[in-house]
């Protein structure tokens, strides 16, 4: 049995991993929420790693409020950088492989073609910087790690863009959505399958990997798919980033090149719209 600690039990990603448990009989998962394991506390991390022997730690814990991070950067740093460092040190002490989730927001968005793992990071907001610094802490501390950068995560769990559009359709008649930021929506369930594959393969191809669904979209295009599928009574207005001011700047282009993950682990990434429709089937709305 492979023993796996999963932090951030209530994150949408950890909930997708929980949904998958039955399909991974060779893995014994131990999910911890932020009360049971606060990654910003060295004592909490030490206690967890001493209490049980793990082969892997999947870090789903993160400070993910991109705009709020601009006004409380220390809180974002505490979780995304210091917390990740605490986990990396514990993994080193206990000989555990760390699988950490990072983001397309480590890039500045100036490229016009999909970002590869070799491209220079240059975050343009606090969230991206704290996530990039978390990656650096792992690389300084560990040899046996997987850093998986992903983008625009959604699922049928927790708060995400799909849920936001569904909620807004009950509250508003029209909304403005930016049409000049390009990325790739990614179904967290597909990412959880990839994470479980790395674990079951017991892969030693450590390093950074990009994982997302296939293709590209703007937030406007993403919203349009959601509205059309559910036939929502919500008018969409296409706006540019300079008309839709947010506290955090966002990269204009952050599509990830997933070739390395596809070749290394022999996976096929699904087209983003087909994964979105699959996700819709698990939504419990009238
Ligand atoms: N969402 C996206 O669009 C996106 C895109 C690219 C990459 N990512 C990355 O993917 C990963 C998963 O994202 P997600 O959207 O699934 O996350 P999420 O739903 O926002 O959940 C984050 C989780 O982290 C937990 N957490 C926060 N501080 C913690 C701490 N000090 N100790 C332990 N747990 C703590 C939270 O617990 P509480 O609720 O109890 O505080 C929450 O359950 C993250 O690393 C994120 O940066 C996300």
Automatic annotation (TrEMBL):
EC number: 1.1.1.133
Keyword Oxidoreductase appears in the UniProt entry: yes
Domain RmlD-like substrate binding, residue spans: 4-280
Keywords: NADP, Oxidoreductase
GO-annotated molecular function: dTDP-4-dehydrorhamnose reductase activity
Pathway(s) where this gene product acts: Carbohydrate biosynthesis; dTDP-L-rhamnose biosynthesis
Presence of the UniProt keyword NADP in the record: yes
Gene Ontology CC terms: cytosol
Domain of life: Bacteria
Gene3D superfamilies: NAD(P)-binding Rossmann-like Domain, UDP-galactose 4-epimerase, domain 1
UniProt record, GO biological process: dTDP-rhamnose biosynthetic process
Catalytic reactions of this protein: dTDP-beta-L-rhamnose + NADP(+) = dTDP-4-dehydro-beta-L-rhamnose + NADPH + H(+)
Family recorded in the similarity comment: Belongs to the dTDP-4-dehydrorhamnose reductase family.
Biological role stated in the UniProt entry: Catalyzes the reduction of dTDP-6-deoxy-L-lyxo-4-hexulose to yield dTDP-L-rhamnose.
PANTHER family, sorted: DTDP-4-DEHYDRORHAMNOSE REDUCTASE, METHIONINE ADENOSYLTRANSFERASE 2 SUBUNIT BETA
Protein name: dTDP-4-dehydrorhamnose reductase
Native organism: Winogradskyella jejuensis
Taxonomic placement: Bacteria, Pseudomonadati, Bacteroidota, Flavobacteriia, Flavobacteriales
């Amino acid at each position: 049995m492979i023993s796996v600690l999963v932090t951030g039990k209530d994150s949408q990603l950890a909930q997708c991993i929980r949904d998958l448990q039955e399909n991974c009989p060779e893995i014994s998962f131990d999910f911890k929420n932020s009360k049971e394991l606060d990654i910003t506390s060295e004592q909490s991390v030490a206690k967890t790693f001493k209490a049980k022997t793990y082969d892997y730690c999947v870090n789903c814990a993160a400070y993910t409020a991109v705009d709020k991070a601009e006004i409380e950067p220390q809180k974002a740093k505490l979780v995304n950088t210091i917390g990740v460092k605490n986990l990396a040190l514990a993994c080193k002490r206990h000989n555990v492989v760390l699988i950490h989730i990072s983001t397309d927001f480590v890039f500045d968005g100036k490229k016009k073609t999909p970002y590869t793992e070799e491209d220079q990071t240059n975050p343009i907001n606090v969230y991206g910087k704290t996530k990039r610094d978390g990656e650096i802490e792992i690389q300084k501390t560990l040899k046996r790690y997987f850093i998986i950068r992903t983008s625009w995560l959604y699922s049928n769990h927790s708060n995400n863009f799909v849920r936001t559009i569904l909620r807004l359709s009950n509250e508003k008649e029209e909304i403005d959505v930016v049409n000049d930021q390009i990325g790739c929506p990614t179904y967290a369930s597909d990412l959880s399958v990839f994470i479980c594959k790395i674990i079951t393969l017991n892969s030693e191809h450590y390093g950074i990997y990009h994982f997302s669904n296939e293709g590209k979209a703007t937030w406007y295009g993403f919203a349009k798919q959601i509205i059309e599928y559910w036939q929502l009574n919500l008018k969409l207005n296409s706006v540019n980033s300079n008309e839709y001011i947010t506290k955090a700047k966002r990269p204009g282009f952050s599509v990830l090149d997933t070739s390395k993950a596809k070749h290394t682990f022999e996976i096929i990434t699904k087209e983003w719209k087909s994964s979105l429709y699959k996700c819709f089937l698990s939504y419990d709305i009238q």
